[in-house]
Amino acid sequence: MRIPQIQMESQQAKISMQTMNARQSIQQPQADLRIEQPKAVMKMRTTPGKLTIDQSQAWEEMNLKSTFKAVKENAVKGNQKVMEGIARVAQEGDEMIEIQNGQNAYVEQAKRQANPPMPETNITWIPSPFSVKTHYQPGQVDIQFQARKPSIDATVRKPVIQYAPGDVQIQLAQRNHLKIDLIK
To answer: Which InterPro entries does this UniProt record tie to the protein (predicted)?
Structure first.
């Protein structure tokens, strides 16, 4: 004897999905920009420097004097030499008076006249160092500066946005199914 059997056959449901991605594009137009920079205002005032050179001492040391100064100095020297000559003659006269005391004034005076003392010699720089005098007064510069701010004019443009939404389509690809059989 056979026992009846139940045979079951099933099939599951299946779905299918189709997706379309969303699309988005963004474009940003450049802004209109205008910039103007006014020139700064600058004022300058200068006082020139002053250089003073005094070389009169150097010219005098090289014996290149003005006529009036040379005449004046020569007059002073001439007067001095005359006074020295008068003093020498007076001294020689006094020496001759002393002949009575046994001195030979003529011989002494002749020796002095025949052998005058050697003139002093020395090396000197003509003109002497630092005989040219200089004085410098530096100049001055006064600068006044006034800056000016730039003028900026900007026009902003909105971005252009395009958007296409995505989509999902769901369908039943296979239906579910259950089959039951009784086998005897």
So the answer is: DUF6470 (IPR045527)
